[in-house]
Amino acid sequence: MSTETAPDRITATRPASGRLRSGRLIGWDGAIVLVTLVFIAVAAVTVEHFGTSRNAGFLILDLTPVLLLALPMTLIIVTGEIDLSVASMVGLTSSAMGVMWNNGLPLETIMPLCVVIGAVLGAVNGIFVTALGLPSLAVTIGTLALYRGLAYVLLGDTAVADYPRDFTSWTIGNIGASSVPNVLIPLIVVSGIFAAALHATPVGRSVFAAGANPTAAAFAGIPVGRLKFWLYVVSGAVAGLVGVFWTLRYSSARADNAAGLELTVVAAVLLGGVSIFGGKGTLPGVVAGVVLLTSLQNALRLASVSTEALTVVTGSLLIVSVLAPNVVTSARAALARRRARLRMTPTS
Amino acid sequence: MTLLAQPTEPATGRTRTGSTALDLVLRFRALGLVIALAVLVAVTAAVNSRFVGQQSIRDLLLSAAITMLLAVGMTVVVLTRGIDLSVGSVLGLSAYVTADFLQSNAGTPVPVAMLVGLGVGAACGLVNGVVIHVGKVPPLVATLGTLYVFRGIVYFVAGGSRINASDMPPGFLDFGTARFAGIPYLIMVSLVVLVLIGVFLSRYRAGRDMYALGSSPEAARLAGVPAGRRLLTAYVLCGALAGLGGVLHAARYGTVDASAGSGLELSVVAAVVVGGVAIFGGSGTVYGAALGALLLTVISNALPVLSIDQFWQQAIVGALILGAIGLDRFVGLRVAASLRTKDSHVD
User: pLDDT at position A229, please?
Assistant: First the structure.
């Protein structure tokens, strides 16, 4: 997948500050990259139509919203927080876009406005989490309901669908006569920026420090609260961008757009080796997690597994990606204890 | 929240000496809820007097009964610093499985049907509990996962089909509408569960342990609280009550499809936090949560009467969650500050 090349180059040149476990030949994120490549190779051979360039185009369109939302989500989870409201922010900005279009605003004005609206929604999350010191889980469950509810208030159960063809066909179109989707290059650029920010800048190191030990980070002079606040703002702004993309891709602004997408995003991030407890993770791993999850869903859909059954797969992967490292760690600890006991017995 | 450490004394109920400020806040919270309820009902009744008619009140209580049941289970989990986002899916699974069971075993008495639902729910709760306690997966992640896994299973079992009232035995549907001394059975079931869990939490050692675990997990463990067993109990209880909620859902509505109870977890979480159960664990009562459930139901029933768009409902649920946790935090900080100045020797 060409999406991975940009972040991968960055990993090679940076110190492995975010490695899950140092001193081992390959970390969780490296393993996920391998699993992803193997899965795509196997699926291309065994699943009919999976390997076609047409399907690859669809796949990239499918993974665009997940990957975009996963980038800021990674940073937020690394700081030890979470944002469950991302899908609702997508729905609300999409609805806002529909309302503004109905009121005759030009799309050139609407699109940046949607990003601003998203940033404001994210700032609300940020204020609750940082200024009031509330648990992000509870806050973003609240805004998950609030933002989705406001989306329904704006549009009810109607849809706004008459966008200009120029915009909608660019969104789903390819570069020139090639089969490379238009969205791919912006997607790579944005992923590269996030990867560079996390792994090669002081901000990125602050993110890891804030997640590993907030108290120590605060004593080291890192403005933990301000950092988290701006991460929520970025998460909202990106959600606004995804709201625009979603609306144009399906040429339809609806209140229920992207409902439930937060599950896929969180699952992909955790699958990519980011620790839910904060402080650990890499962006190349997350990109691989997103690619693996979306191509798995794509392959299952091609194999005519129903959409509802897919949620079982996504939900299970979410649990397994947290469960598996825990099980491995505790098994290793048990083994070490037994070895220690065996060493002890002859002497005592 | 240091002041929440007091309820660790087992089995003595409300002997919180020295935290009168907290007592005041808790009492004020319940009072605030009752006042909010009264104002809302009064305003709505002024617009349309039929809102306080017998039939309307009965409908309202019937709807509240199911949310209340789930809120009671959720309270136990939230007290231990956990959360269970899968309750809506568990309700859906239990409702469908129970309805399907009744469809093929028409002669089943109602208590057996309730046992089936309880069993399905308890099994789901056990899965949550094992993943959380044994697998060390944070409750949020675990139950977000099972929210989709259980819902996926309902869709898998049900396909696109639905079970209609005509497929279910009339005895079961009667149970959904029948009353004793004017009170529908469903409401009585909820009230009995409410009181039972309320007594369990305030009078029994295992119940007090839930508060201890939520106040300070480390201290509770050092004090000999069997944390694993208590956590499993909490999640199994929460699942079982969601399962029972599924049976009541099937009996009340008579129609069950795969989407039954979708999104209900948000209302239940809202009811619990609005009812004064601290999302940080260790503080709150099931009676508060039940009041919260009642308030939420009254709001959703009042919206059409006040000719407010039904689409506002979810936004209100979200705003209530944010308002409740924000208020808790604000009041908690104030109380902590006043305690510090008053008797700083405690620390």
Answer: 97
